[in-house]
Amino acid sequence: MDVFTAAPHHDVLVLVVQIATLLIAARSFGFLAQRFGQPAVVGEILSGVLLGPSLLSSLAPALGVWIVPQTEVQGYLLEVISLLGAMFLLIITGLETDLPLIRRHAKTALGVAAGGLVLPLVSGFVMALYLPDFLLADPERRLVFALFVATALSISAIPVIAKVLIDLNLMRRDIGQTIMAAGMVDDTVAWILLSIVLGLAGGGAVTAGNVLFSAGKIVVFMGLSFTLGRWLLKRALDFMQDRVVGPDRLLSLVVAAAFIWGAVAQAIQIEAVLGAFVVGILFGTMRRLPIDVVHKLESVAIGIFAPIFFAVAGLKVNIPSLLTPQLLLTTLIVLGVAVFGKTVGAYTGGRFIGLDHWRSLAYGSALNARGAVEIIIATIGLSLGILSQDMYSIIVLMAVATSLMAPALLRWTLQHVVPDEQESKRLRQEALTSGSLLARTNRVLLPVRQRSGEGRFDLQKIETQLIGRLGEGLAVTLLNVAPPGGRAEGAAYLNEMGALFAAQDLSKRVVETDDAATAILDEAQKDYDLIILGASEKASGRDVLFHPVTDEIIRLAPCPTMIVKGTRVAEHWPPLRILVPTNGSASARYAAEVAFALAGDAKVTLLSVVEGEKRGDYRFDSSVGARARQLSNAHSIVTSLQQLGEAQEVFAETEVRAGGSPEAVILECAERGHFDLIILGTDLRASTQRVFLGPRVEAVLDGATCPVIVVNAS
User: Fold this and answer.
1) Contact of 418 with 450, CB cutoff 8 Å
2) H or E stretch including 147?
3) The domain that contains 170 carries what CATH number?
4) Does residue 420 register a pLDDT over 60?
5) Tally of CB atoms within 10 A around 166
6) Nearest to residue 576, comparing CAs of 406, 401, 449, 706?
7) Would you state the pLDDT for residue 617?
8) Is 91:297 a contact under the CB 8 Å cutoff?
9) Which of 80, 139, 409, 680 has the largest CB neighbor count within 10 A?
């Protein structure tokens, strides 16, 4: 076999110039489009149109030879970069596909999606049957062409729709979620149909056998992906997260998996971009995948490759060639059929399932946006010889036009769509819980030490209740640090203890070492959002707050920690009464969030203490104004947290106490009220010698007779 060689020096030089030029132009025009209230993708496509034969390359051919590929090799090189953009864009689209969201809004999403699929398919197919022959790459294969155009017109562009909804602050509205769900259904079905059409494009005559074979391929591919494939990806994610140490290892895993799935899809004559889309969906269902991996992928895709892809798509558009009367009329017909099919189809589907006029029209307006995905499909059709160059240009122009329409039409229709009380309540709750510690907690590390005898799982019962109520689907790792030679015994202990965590995504690890703190901290470096530590022992010295190992973990942990202090489970557990002292700090708010999550049927009391020399009313002297402000602030603090609890359907009591030291008042209140649990919020104070959580927190820890949870969000 001959050793492969590099492309000619001049062709590589042209590629480098093209990438720099297209990236700068696409990003600049993308920013400009956003300044005018349009999605960035519109400006990115227009940048390619303006640089290509539509304008600059025609007016200045000497510049055009450095922008538009002039040889096959130059074209292939630029197409490879463009393919990377499409792959990365579809990974992000898959990651944004929320399957639970589709299930929650199944009826509405399916009704709207059905209308938004059927009418565009029918109208697009009929239109394509009567388009002139010169728009077909192969006039002998009009049926495949018609099926391709019909499928292309039925697609909605999830990235464009999502960007429009974000720009209009609609993503968390019920209608925004349902628009996304309907778009996801539309795109999923359309991609399946597209795969069948592409199979027919390479399979000779259109027969029932060919159709069944093409449909069977996509069904098998999707079925294996969402069963065996998901299992393999989950195991790979677990292995990379738990066993491999190194920067960006999970980013590499996601990208490699997308290209593996893409290779399989391409090998069976399904497009590689569909493989990337499926991998994005699969990883999107795994809470163990850190959000920073998604952000990095978005940075690479949106910041680099996708703009180049859209600019390359624009380069292929030749508007002057469409300015003949026949092509101009054809362009208007394609645009009219596309807008009519999607808007009227989605509107009809919405009305059929009982939605009102304006809500149904809003769905049609949003799903009419084609943008990114339409360009990908048009590019596929051009590369496979289904579309002519003129038909490609027409579809790209249609995609740009429909993307331009969506924001304005949505703004207009949604002025008439008023959220109901249930939605308003949910939106208020989300506003109150924005920035929540619990909202960004997906992966929890729980180090455990082996105990024997009666009550050896008492502390773990508290931790189990805590983890079980922090959120659904948390990924929990139980870590047992065993002495050398104690692996078998440690594994048996974890297996016995694991029964307490049956409802969680549970991993169990045993590490043999005499240095427990180092082992736990090494594990904590592996993308955990929270560490929960049990502290049942009394401090062994004045420089130790809990235990030397526990103190070192708290001091050096790379993520927030929760410390559960208590020896035996109280008579009533889950707790019946929870006390949350608060001073208005962010850490105290996090403590209240934990209390509300843990509450269940428990009674939560929010306590604010205004320090002073005596309790009760104060005389009107020189300090009365300051004291009144302190009391007013204290009432505002507990009232704000009370509203946060009400948004989560936890109705907490509030109490403001004046006088005495705060720690003394907290302990007295806990004893007098027979509280089962105290939850404290704090930020770790810097100290090179010992853990220091503040004198008040440490005084409460030392004096409390019930379990105490300390939320250290630093």
Assistant:
1) no
2) helix 142-154
3) 1.20.1530.20
4) yes
5) 13
6) 706
7) 43
8) yes
9) 680
**Does 644 map to a domain?**
yes
| HSE, side-chain direction, 13 A CA sphere, residue 592 | 33
Least confident range from 67-81, 291-305, 455-469: namely 455-469
Confidence (pLDDT) at 619 = 38
CA-based R_g, the chain, Å? 31
Q: Is the dihedral of CA 247, 248, 252, 254 positive or negative?
A: positive
CB atoms within 10 A of CB 642: 18
529 Cβ neighbours under 8 A, 6+ residues apart: 440, 441, 442, 443, 444, 559, 560
Question: What's the confidence (pLDDT) of residue 567?
Answer: 55
Q: Are 343 and 365 in contact, with CB atoms under 8 Å apart? A: yes
The CA–CA distances, whole Å, from 383 to 123, 145, 386, 642, 654 equal: 25, 13, 8, 60, 67
Q: 203-225 pLDDT, tens per residue? A: 655 666 766 777 788 788 888 99
DSSP one-letter code for 573: S
Sheet holding 577-581, edge to edge: 505-512, 475-482, 443-448, 530-535, 561-565, 708-712, 677-682, 577-581, 603-610, 653-658
543-555 pLDDT per residue, tens: 777 888 888 888 8
Domain with residue 505: its CATH number is 3.40.50.12370
Total Cβ atoms within 10 A of residue 217: 17
Asked if 522 and 491 touch (Cβ cutoff 8 Å), the reply is: no
Element at 588 (helix H, strand E) = helix 586-599
- Other beta carbons within 10 angstroms of residue 296's beta carbon come to 16
b/e string for 537-549 if b means 16 or more Cβ within 10 A?
eebeeeebbbbbb
- Most confidently modeled range among 43-47, 216-220, 342-346: 342-346
Average pLDDT rounded to a whole number, residues 404-413: 80
Average pLDDT estimate for 260-265: 93
Phi, psi dihedral angles at 437 (to 5 degrees): -60, -40
Report if residue 191 sits inside a domain: yes
- At residue 232 the predicted structure's pLDDT band, cuts being 50, 70 and 90, is very high
Number of H helices, E strands in the chain: 29, 10
Cβ contact 367:182 at 8 Å: yes
Domain ranges, residue 553: 443-712
In a domain, 429, yes or no: no
Whole-angstrom CA distances from 331 to 35, 180, 228, 312 are: 28, 28, 44, 21
Measured distance CA(676)–CA(572) in Å, rounded: 7
Under 8 Å between Cβ of 391 and 134: no
CA distance 360 to 164: 17
Domain count, the chain: 2
Q: Which tokens in the block code for residue 182?
A: 């309907």
- Same-domain status, 312 and 458: no
